[in-house]
Amino acid sequence: MSKITVEKCQELIEAEYPLAIYWGFRIEDLGAGTARVRMPYSPKILRLGGTIAGPALMGLADFTMYFTVLTAYEYETGVQSVSTNLNTTFFRRPRQKDVVAHGRIQKAGRRMCFLEVELMSDEQPEAVAHVTGTYALPPQTA
Amino acid sequence: MSKITVEKCQELIEAEYPLAIYWGFRIEDLGAGTARVRMPYSPKILRLGGTIAGPALMGLADFTMYFTVLTAYEYETGVQSVSTNLNTTFFRRPRQKDVVAHGRIQKAGRRMCFLEVELMSDEQPEAVAHVTGTYALPPQTA
Amino acid sequence: MSKITVEKCQELIEAEYPLAIYWGFRIEDLGAGTARVRMPYSPKILRLGGTIAGPALMGLADFTMYFTVLTAYEYETGVQSVSTNLNTTFFRRPRQKDVVAHGRIQKAGRRMCFLEVELMSDEQPEAVAHVTGTYALPPQTA
Amino acid sequence: MSKITVEKCQELIEAEYPLAIYWGFRIEDLGAGTARVRMPYSPKILRLGGTIAGPALMGLADFTMYFTVLTAYEYETGVQSVSTNLNTTFFRRPRQKDVVAHGRIQKAGRRMCFLEVELMSDEQPEAVAHVTGTYALPPQTA
């Protein structure tokens, strides 16, 4: 079970993440070490050729990882985590549809959390991009 | 010498890259296989703790790579190039200042172009992040 | 179904891949876009602290990707494929056991093939490392 | 200035790194946060087509990073560091020559060290591969 609720994550977005508001990210589901986040289709994330720009996909992946971290750590620890590495592979052009990100913790360590995110065009069977990342957790003070 | 002018790149941004307009990217310099692009400091790119959000840094790096590709290839080839891989390492929190991206081609191949970008807080001596990437060029039709 | 047999892959190793012989790689299973390869535990792959060295793990992952490519492409195409990018994340120390690599194609394109490999200590439930990679296929001559 | 001598690093290889002995790695130079390491050309590192195999290049890069860490940290800290991420991009086929690795620290943090390595065919002007990596340092006990 997730250690944080969808509502609490949306509150955090409202208070602290203007880019996530701009992109309209909606957290759809949180589990134990998993998160599903939706980016609505919009002209403002397009690039030449009418395709969704890479930075919007990477932004969606990064936020999804952050919320995935929050599902598995105590709030004070998770909220202060920061990404140290993010590696994105772009497989194919996304459709002109919402993009849905599926985040998953690969290893939840004490000092670092390793994650992956798969990005899918809404209701399509194939991933458009795959992202792996490392989040550093704040040093334990106890 | 760059195969494209700063003005032509800014026109391309205006016409095709709403995210680059939103972030206010300004191309400052183009060389033979190099580009320098500035992201002005603004509250809309912040995240929790008042630091600049990772997605804005990755967005700046991706656009800088794209314009770096355009300095080295014929226009029709470069403009249709797409990123297939982008790997970002975050070294330290950026200052509350503009971020300046220095892009450089590592290898300009016929099918793929390999690049790196160093991101610096304005007028600071140390990089805040380092990004490597691969762009795929469109298949040659000639 | 795999386009190549286990026997044919082992022949290729014998003829062309002295490092794979040195490490004792054994191909255990090939499917349509999947491969399972075993690296036997041996003192020659250890590093300080008695743990298996990163380069042996990366070598296993790279060879596993190569054989995974061969399961999905015509022989002449697959055998000439070369890795252009390999990104490894090390999650935990491997046990003093064989390492088993599970390779899977993420996207089999015409010019590039994207893959991932999970590395497991034999009979353990948790991955020790995760690797993503890109292979470039030779230009089509037809 | 390096915190460790070339002789001490070679001793460490002899005692603890059989793969580095197998490959014949020779540390040529150590500076403050820099290292140059040579892999002699040998048939045992080849792959199909007579080119040097990716795993040998990645092995050279990983060892070079390790010794680069040792130039910048106290011995007990550096020797216990472990790689958590290694990202390799292969630019071109190496020549049938020695490969020389140039390692450099990008950021020496308290918990993590970020590095890059450029791999060159001996006496050639262009890099054959570029590697970025992250090493985790052991938790401070003091």
Write the layout of secondary structure elements.
The structure is a homotetramer of 142-residue chains.
Chain A (H helix, E strand, L loop, with lengths): L5 H11 L1 H6 L2 E6 L2 E6 L6 E2 L3 E2 L1 H17 L4 H5 L2 E9 L8 E10 L3 E10 L5 E10 L6
Antiparallel strand pairs in A: 1-2, 2-6, 3-4, 5-8, 6-7, 7-8
Explain how this protein is built.
- 4 copies of one chain form a homotetramer.
- Chain A is α+β, with helices and mostly antiparallel strands and 142 residues long.
- Chain A is 27% helix and 39% strand.
- Chain A contains 4 helices and 8 strands; from the N terminus they run ααββββααββββ.
- Chain A has helices at 6-16, 18-23, 54-70, 75-79; strands at 26-31, 34-39, 46-47, 51-52, 82-90, 99-108, 112-121, 127-136.
- In chain A, the strands form 2 sheets. In chain A, strands 1-2-6-7-8-5 form a 6-stranded antiparallel β-sheet. A two-stranded antiparallel sheet of chain A has the order 3-4.
- The longest helix of chain A has 17 residues, at 54-70.
- Chain A starts with 5 loop residues before the first helix and ends in a 6-residue tail after the last strand.
- The model of chain A has no long low-confidence stretch (mean pLDDT 96).
- Chains in contact: A-B, A-C, A-D, B-C, B-D, C-D.
- Chain A binds chain B through residues 12, 16-19, 22, 43-49, 53-56, 58-59, 62-63, 79-80, 82-90, and chain B through 12, 16-19, 22, 43-49, 53-56, 58-59, 62-63, 79-80, 82-90, 93.
Question: Which descriptors would you attach to this protein?
Answer:
142 residues, homotetramer, 39% strand, alpha+beta, 4 helices, two-stranded antiparallel ribbon, 6-stranded antiparallel sheet, Thiol Ester Dehydrase, Chain A
